[in-house]
Design a protein that fits this description.
5-stranded parallel β-sheet, 38% helix, Rossmann fold, 298 residues, binds N-carbamoyl-L-aspartate, alpha/beta
């Protein structure tokens, strides 16, 4: 009933979401007209919150929202109490919270299904579904592709979930991170053991041979020392020179928001597909909400 981690799902379920998303493109339905989707955001969001609300509306459901800054959490209410109350107000809760494991906790308490919209540096399953959908749409396949994940691989939940998703679908990955921001060892180990995934780690900004370059920002809010994050952010930038030896049909993706890690010239290239990727959030989140509201998640 819940969508908490990409690790909870098998290929068959993910494929069914991707094919349902394809059917949802451009649609406005009244399938869930008596349903209420609550978005609860205790961390900043533009795309995830708005696209979930838009997706809910396009399914005929109504969206209601709670924002951490304006909630009784500011008065000291616990997350457990907030969830206990709010789960009586809606048919599904979409939650983003800075604590790792918070979505799982919310699901244990809630009377209605919970969708994880990001729990700290841990998981962001619906972003991964959007990313897999986008790559498949651009490249016609996932299996056998060479995907480079570049950026803060330590704290970015989008990257953690995506490595697992790509491995499940047979893509090869190259991980490039600034020193100290490497991917969690357990996720690499699990992806290799479960899916026999080919995962290469490198410290060199070399994207030759890659079909997809997926970049993410330095996750400054998760650093103990924000100056350390700023220092790393300054040193880390993809410009046209770095793309000189890359494939002509390289697709450049990013979960957004981007800060300084991509030059404006790169953003103007036809290979930059991140705004298209963000728009894919609508059909994919429609598919996820439809599955959850139809009680088909297994
Ligand atoms: C990502 C997130 O919140 O994890 N954003 C998003 O949902 N599109 C990536 C990020 O904040 O860097």
């Amino acid at each position: 009933m819940d969508v908490i981690s990409i690790r909870d799902f098998d290929k068959k379920w993910i494929e069914s979401i991707l094919s349902s998303a394809k059917k949802m493109e451009g649609k406005r339905l009244d399938k869930h007209s008596c349903k209420i989707v609550a978005t609860l955001f205790f961390e900043p969001s533009t795309r995830t919150n708005m696209s979930f609300q838009s997706a809910a509306n396009r399914l005929g459901a109504r969206a209601i929202a709670l924002y951490g800054e304006m909630s009784s959490q500011k008065k000291g209410e616990s997350l457990v109490d907030t969830i206990s109350v709010v789960s009586g107000y809606a048919d599904v809760l979409v939650i983003r919270h800075p604590l790792e494991g918070s979505a799982r906790l919310a699901a244990d308490i809630s009377k209605v299904p919970v969708v994880n919209a990001g729990d700290g540096g841990n998981q962001h399953p619906t972003q991964t579904l959007i990313d897999l959908y986008t790559i498949q749409k651009l490249k016609g396949r996932l299996s056998g592709l060479k995907v480079c994940l570049l950026g803060d691989l330590k704290y970015a939940r989008a990257m953690r979930s995506l490595l697992y998703g790509l491995s499940m679908f047979g893509a090869e990955t190259k991980l490039i991170a600034p020193k100290g921001l490497e991917m969690n060892r357990d996720i690499i180990k699990e992806s290799k053991e479960k899916f026999d995934a080919k995962i290469e780690e490198s410290g060199k900004m070399d994207f030759s041979g890659c079909d997809v370059l997926y970049i993410c920002r330095i996750q400054k809010e998760r650093f103990a020392d924000p100056y350390e994050a700023e220092k790393l952010q300054k040193e880390f930038r993809v410009d046209e020179k770095l793309l000189e030896n890359t494939k002509d049909d390289l697709a450049i993706l990013h979960p957004l928001p981007k800060i300084d890690e991509i030059s404006n010239a790169v953003s103007r290239l036809k290979q930059a597909k991140y705004f298209e990727q963000a728009h894919n959030g609508i059909p994919v989140r429609m598919a996820v909400l439809d599955a959850v509201l139809s009680d088909e998640v297994g």
